[in-house]
Amino acid sequence: MEDTLLMIPGPTTVPKRVLDAMAQPIVNHRGPVYGEILEETTAMMSEVFQTDNKSYLLTGSGTSAMEAAIANIVEKGDKVINVVSGKFGQRLQQLTEVFGGESIEIAVPWGQAADPEEIKRVLDENDDVKALTMIHNESSTAVVNPIQEVGKIMKDYDALFVVDTVSSLAGDNVKVDEYGLDICLTGSQKCIAAPPGMAAITINDDAWKVIDSVDSPTYYLDLKAMRKSGDKSPSQTPYTPNVSMTYAMREALSMVLEEGLDARIKRHHIGAEATREAAKTLGLDLFAREGDYSNTLTAINMPEGVTDNQLRGTMRNKYQIELAGGQDHLKGNIFRIGHMGTTGLHELAMTFACLEMTLKEFGFEFESGAGVAALEDIYLKNL
Ligand SMILES: Cc1ncc(COP(=O)(O)O)c(C=O)c1O
Description:
Aspartate Aminotransferase, domain 1; 7-stranded mixed β-sheet; binds pyridoxal-5'-phosphate; Aspartate Aminotransferase, domain 2; 14 strands
């Protein structure tokens, strides 16, 4: 069990340094020691978000930050454009509706990235739009959406730009201030490589103006309460935070910054390219449209002649490697390989060696080692 290799799009393998940090004693969450840890961690969070805004930690998974983002800006009847290109885009749309918003959906075929021109057209056609939501890295389809281009367009409109970077922050380019992201949120368990159970959100002045004007029905996820507690000295959270997870986040974010954001993102890009090349070399087809590929995970069409149970079951039971399946209508039709967090050549080489053996067991033919050799070529090219 301990040796299972997690090649799923989160949770990812957590470095020992981070696990060890969690073993530190629990401290008073209202005292100066925790205050200092919280301030240090949220400052690093803002550095990773590449913003001058303050950031807030939420004890909850990524979805808690998605809910906080929507619950604090959407009131009954508010128009919100939801770009829906997969499962997580759908989630932001559902949250919009839960909080009484009127969703204007931009439906993007699963496997493709949103088209900025289409977004501009929908913005022009609709007055009084309060916000536009987008998933940067749609983990259900392994597609990256063009947040930088859309951010440029959004500068000409009053609507807030709300972006989920749960599976991209610290693994792909997310420059909150430069791109003009008004609210940006993430989770602990993906590219940051901390355990699951903590989320983070950062909010600019335009978004705070909207939040201050909204009488939100949410209690636990009230961002105004988070700001008030965060501003205290020592800094606090409104309710008891997960102290151990704060230690984990502090350590994991330190590791991100020690590696350097650019170097870490480049490492993710190389892993993504190597995965795609290895898969193609084995005769496998990628699910996402060319050019829209995610840099943190890859979705591969399930090849004819093997079922999801056979392929992922063999990888799990024989080789102790966890791959992810498809979600909703993609169940059984794709499998996904996560290459995020600390995952690199070691893990990918092991995964492709075992994937080759699994495919051979089910009758597929290719030269042994071809996938691993394709990985090597990409890594050698990037030495
Ligand atoms: C892009 C994206 N957004 C949101 C979430 C939800 O995060 P969580 O499962 O931590 O609530 C996920 C989880 O996979 C995700 O990949």
